[in-house]
Design a protein that fits this description.
single chain; 816 residues; alpha+beta; Beta-galactosidase, Chain A, domain 5; 20 helices; globular; glycosyltransferase; carbohydrate binding; Glyco_hydrolase_94_b-supersand; transferase; 6-hairpin_glycosidase_sf
Amino acid sequence: MRYGHFDDERREYVIDRPDTPLPWINYLGTEEYFGLVSNTAGGYSFYRDARLRRLTRYRYNNAPFDLGGRYLYVRDDATGDFWSPTWQPTRSPLDSYECRHGLSYTRIASARGGIRAETLYFVPLGETLEVWRVRVTNDRDTAAELSLFSSVEFCLWDAQDDATNFQRNFSTGQVEVADGVIYHKTEYRERRDHFAYFACSEPLAGFDTQRDTFLGPYRGWDQPAAVERGAAFDSEAHGWAPIGSHHVRLALAPGETREVVFVLGYAENPRTEKFDPPGSQTLNKRHVRPVIERWLRPETVAEGFAALGAYWDRLLGTLRVTTPDADTDRMVNIWNAYQCVVTFNMSRSASFYESGIGRGMGFRDSNQDLLGFVHMIPDRARQRILDIAATQMATGGAYHQYQPLTKRGNNDIGEGFNDDPLWLVLGVSAYVKETGDQTILDEPVPFDNVPGSEVSLYEHLRRSVTYTQERLGPHGLPLIGRADWNDCLNLNCFSDTPGEPFQTTENASGGGAESVFIAGQFVLAAKELAAIAELRGRDEEAAGYRAAAEKMTAVIIEHGWDGAWFRRAYDFHGHPVGSSENDEGQIFIEPQGMCVLGGVGLDDGLAVRALGSVAERLATPHGIILQQPAYSDYRIELGEISSYPPGYKENAGIFCHTNPWIMIAEAMVGHGDRAFDYYRSINPSAREAISEVHRCEPYVYAQMIAGRDAPTHGEAKNSWLTGTAAWNFVAITQWILGIRPELAGLRVDPVLPAAWSGFRATREFRSATYEITVRKAAGVSGRVAYLVVDGERIDGTVVPPAPAGAVVAVEAVIEQ
């Protein structure tokens, strides 16, 4: 069943019925001001930090699920009939409905009783505000007297405090209304440095800023008293729950359209401006009035929206492909690339499944997100690398997460996740390969953001690798710590007596548990750092890192190989995890992918055998399961992984983030058909026809899909913010299509499905443009035999960097 369709020409997903299985959302904003918006206008907005600078309130896990948003109400003043043109929150029957989610904008249009309303939501480039452009049209044969009401519910900035500290917050809410603009200044009395504003382009018939007055006693957002009676109360909030609502009266002749612009924004006092005296409640509005007035003009809105489209033209123009598969083209050219940008901006902090309160930017997460983003805006990727590295400890360990507003580690976990440091090596390597910029390696970066502790970024990378080398367990494998990539595999939790409360080792980053996954990751990172060291003329260091990779490879084969696949780990007691010796959880997906990515088993056939075990035991039509058999009971020695019911999340769910590792591994061993089959199995566009099963958005990847042990096999959860986005982009573009940045240039080495006859691509790389054509006969499954570059045949599959501005023609010929 479909709930909409793709409009590839306009780069939009069109939803033609509002009752989607779950809220199908989009993101507004590209720089500092962001928002989530659903297909029925649900969601919220924030400046930089979804916890500490939350502008508007949203109620998670509510009924209906999607509650709180950018709501509008249209009222026919002649009859008293009113409705929401976005369907929510009144859910009144509509004569027509259409939501178009585009790149950083959403447009929702509907009609009822001969009145059409279309609302465009977007955040202009370079601004800390959002625009709602509402166009109301009278399609009747007679004149219409209408009222239009806007509404937002202000969050009191710190979303955690806003949701919990009612004894204080019910007495602190403050607004000010001046010249028709509603200013939300809660906390201004205390901090006097930031506030929100909500403005309207039309003269107001009234306004409201007190929620209880606007809604009325015992009423919800589906039946506000002000809307029902057709007149605002002009209420001003003093404590309780401040909101913003404008009331505009519209008299429309037959066929007439009126445009009304609303602007919701964030502002800070200029840092150079002297603050008001302590205790003053005077709001400094002078510097925002010109901004408000400018964005209330229709011509400014039109120009800003056009600039946003041009921005995405530039970003998506970095890589364009034309393949025999429409779902591949759609994802690579539009939606997967778009999701990579959103995920880079958000990490895992703010979605309909992450409240924006519990976590900030992930150290591990953000480094992986770079992989799918760095080719589009390398300057921002460079700054992100430096921000991430500055949270690293002098030991080489890292905070697992940091808060985007402060850029400081946001918890006391510290060095608990022992895979974290190695991801920095992989993120920096991706940046240097893409840009050729070696200067980043010399940038001074502090440890734990402590002034005076600065060393070069290259030294941070060295300490990342040393961190693993100094934390090896009894088998010579890396200690897992609190967990590795799989946060729920907590092998240093144990109980000496069955039924007794669990204990943890004194040093969460130590303990006896070891990770084969981190071992494979170490091999990959050590090889990448060796290549960087060699690039810098540090040949002796490079040799040392390669030797360390070889040594760890030998340990993996001796202690990590189970006979038909790579083991997952050893628990605190030294028992293998992910082994045929286990009754459950015998094979895990992660080490089969990461060990092969590191090159383990490529020369001796172990990689092919491990991937065969994945195909036999883990692959399903909906994707590759994380482990099998599922854990049927809670096992204290394994931790949180066994707390999930079979088939969900880390307990034998299809954790989509790991699937691309297997796609890449299959490409590395030359299995094009299997790699592409895995790619299509979780490709959301390819799953659109089963939306009633998949349930999540058909235009972006989800974190997980329920595994075959689950009653809801094939159902997706946790869409948008997931490492799945970046890794799938890498898997399809760099390994299956084979267009891969390397230190020496651009490699063109595709591993294609046998049925394909080739493809075409345009790739911008280091300021040059590469026009790539790949040719092969249908049915052929070989590798590239040779390249022809600007008419000349070259050896190998790496095209050297061309001068800036050059256009390079590359032809790759695949033969049996």
